[in-house]
């Protein structure tokens, strides 16, 4: 969540400098599958457009466990916070977020709290699909809080990104494997990014039993926090060698490297704790931006 920003409370007078969303629709209902062994099916949608002066939100549709709120920041961009309205994802849930920043729009999306994957009423995996689209000269920032894989959970998470040639993206994802003193559930994660119609990144990872070797020295080496940071910008300086940040077992480490096929830098990090992981990813972002 942006520093100094706050969620607009119900009944707050509209900010005259920020056009109100034209289609802010709460979920009509939780689908009939709520509580059913097959789980909850829900898709929340965010669409941001640029009106020539500021970014507006003509579509802000909450659904199921996703309650969407615009965060007032006073800038020309738009920031949306996602508030969890119920425990999710549970086994059998089918959840999706569809987020679009149209041409020249500037949109940041975050979550108010960590997402906790829990054991559900069925052993079937839950799915959590995030779809990000950015148009020409758009700027999209996807900065959720951590995803926690609790013991007994089974989650398949995907993040699918489609970028125009001139769009910019900042993506940060963090996974915490197990709560305090517990083993993690089974977590399968995939990040797939296309830029100008060409594949830029396709990363597939799996943690927790029954994934083989996930805790070995070539993967996590005993760490329980893992994260990814992706920066895509047509003006990004990618003429550099990979950078190893804070090498060592005690505090974890991260690698920041350019991606072939685009002006992009990608960091992967492992750490013993969520705070150490965030510090590593912040360091990687600073290196990427030349700070």
Automatic annotation (TrEMBL):
Q: Which Pfam families match?
A: UreD
Tell me where on the tree of life, at the top rank, the source sits: Bacteria
Q: Does the keyword Chloroplast apply?
A: no
Compositionally biased intervals (Low complexity)? 18-32
Keyword annotations from UniProtKB, A to Z: Chaperone, Cytoplasm, Nickel insertion
Q: State the InterPro entries in the record.
A: UreD
| Region of interest: Disordered | 1-38
From the Swiss-Prot or TrEMBL record, state where the protein is found: Cytoplasm
Q: Does the keyword Chaperone apply?
A: yes
Functional note: Required for maturation of urease via the functional incorporation of the urease nickel metallocenter.
Q: Which family does it belong to?
A: Belongs to the UreD family.
Subunit and partners? UreD, UreF and UreG form a complex that acts as a GTP-hydrolysis-dependent molecular chaperone, activating the urease apoprotein by helping to assemble the nickel containing metallocenter of UreC. The UreE protein probably delivers the nickel.
The identity of this protein, by name, is Urease accessory protein UreD
Native source organism of the sequence = Streptomyces sanglieri
Task: Give the classification, highest ranks.
Answer: Bacteria, Bacillati, Actinomycetota, Actinomycetes, Kitasatosporales
- Gene name? ureD
């Amino acid at each position: 969540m942006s520093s100094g920003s706050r969620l607009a409370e119900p009944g707050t007078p509209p900010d005259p400098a920020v056009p109100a969303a034209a289609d802010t629709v709460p979920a009509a209902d939780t689908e009939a599958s709520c509580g059913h062994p097959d789980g909850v099916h829900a898709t929340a949608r965010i669409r941001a457009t640029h009106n020539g002066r500021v970014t507006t939100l003509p579509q802000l549709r909450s659904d199921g466990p996703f309650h969407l709120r615009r965060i007032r920041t006073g800038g020309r961009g738009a920031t949306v916070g996602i508030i969890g309205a119920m425990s999710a994802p549970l086994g059998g849930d089918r959840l999706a977020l569809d987020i679009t920043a149209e041409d020249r729009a500037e949109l940041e999306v975050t979550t108010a709290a960590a997402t906790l994957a829990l054991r559900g009423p069925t052993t079937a995996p839950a799915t959590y699909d995030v779809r990000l689209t950015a148009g020409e000269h758009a700027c999209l920032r996807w900065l959720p809080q951590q995803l926690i894989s609790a013991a007994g959970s089974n989650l398949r998470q995907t993040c699918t990104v489609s970028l125009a040639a001139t769009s910019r993206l900042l993506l940060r994802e963090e996974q915490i494997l197990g709560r305090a003193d517990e083993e993690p559930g089974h977590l399968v994660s995939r990040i797939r990014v296309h830029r100008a119609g060409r594949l830029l990144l396709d990363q597939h990872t799996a943690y927790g039993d029954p994934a083989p070797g996930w805790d070995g020295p070539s993967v996590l080496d005993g760490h329980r926090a893992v994260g990814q940071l992706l920066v895509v910008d047509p003006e990004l300086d990618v003429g550099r060698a990979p950078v190893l940040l804070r090498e060592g077992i005690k505090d974890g480490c991260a690698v920041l490297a350019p991606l072939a096929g685009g002006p992009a830098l990608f960091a992967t990090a492992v750490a013993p704790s969520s705070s150490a992981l965030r510090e590593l990813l912040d360091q990687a972002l600073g290196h990427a931006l030349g700070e």
